[in-house]
């Protein structure tokens, strides 16, 4: 208008026409092009935020998994019991496979009564004390290959032999 291209009357008419179009669009439920773009941008931002939240959740889960693995590794390394060259083969199951380690008689007895446990970590069989094995079992139960509980075995043996009396004069 100031440049002399349109008169006041033409400018006023143009404003009223655009205002009427907006009112009609609102009443009829149709959106103007600018409003459609705005809604599309908002929707895209929401989707991006959802993707970012999911990626952050996955990253946090991976970091937590790494931290647990590091804790288990540290517990095993600090508390491992050295296996002296023993001559007694001790068999234990790892998944569907039977593994064998050679131990001394003292270590074998401790494994049987449950004072020691066998852990398989990084494809290596390691002996650790029971208390440490229980801590590891809280974090990663699949790492524990063998942890005997002598109390359970004694209870089942006592029930089995409860009906049979052992004579006093029996010599083994």
TrEMBL record:
Region (Disordered): 1-63
InterPro entries listed in its UniProt record: DUF2058
Record field: compositional bias (Basic and acidic residues): 33-63
Name of this protein: Nucleoprotein/polynucleotide-associated enzyme
Source organism: invertebrate metagenome
């Amino acid at each position: 208008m100031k440049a002399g291209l349109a008169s006041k009357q033409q400018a006023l008419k143009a404003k009223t026409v655009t205002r009427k179009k907006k009112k009609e669009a609102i009443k009829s439920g149709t959106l103007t092009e600018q409003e459609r773009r705005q809604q599309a941008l908002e929707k895209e931002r929401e989707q991006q935020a959802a993707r970012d939240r999911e990626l952050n959740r996955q990253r946090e889960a991976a970091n937590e998994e790494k931290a647990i693995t590091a804790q288990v590794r540290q517990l095993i390394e600090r508390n491992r019991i050295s296996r002296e060259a023993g001559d007694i083969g001790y068999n234990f199951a790892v998944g569907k496979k039977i593994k064998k380690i050679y131990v001394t008689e003292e270590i074998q007895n401790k494994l049987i009564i449950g004072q020691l446990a066998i852990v398989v970590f990084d494809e290596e069989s390691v002996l650790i004390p029971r208390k440490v094995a229980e801590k590891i079992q809280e974090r990663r139960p699949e790492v524990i290959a063998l942890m005997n509980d002598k109390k359970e075995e004694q209870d089942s043996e006592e029930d089995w032999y409860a009906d049979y009396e052992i004579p006093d004069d029996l010599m083994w």
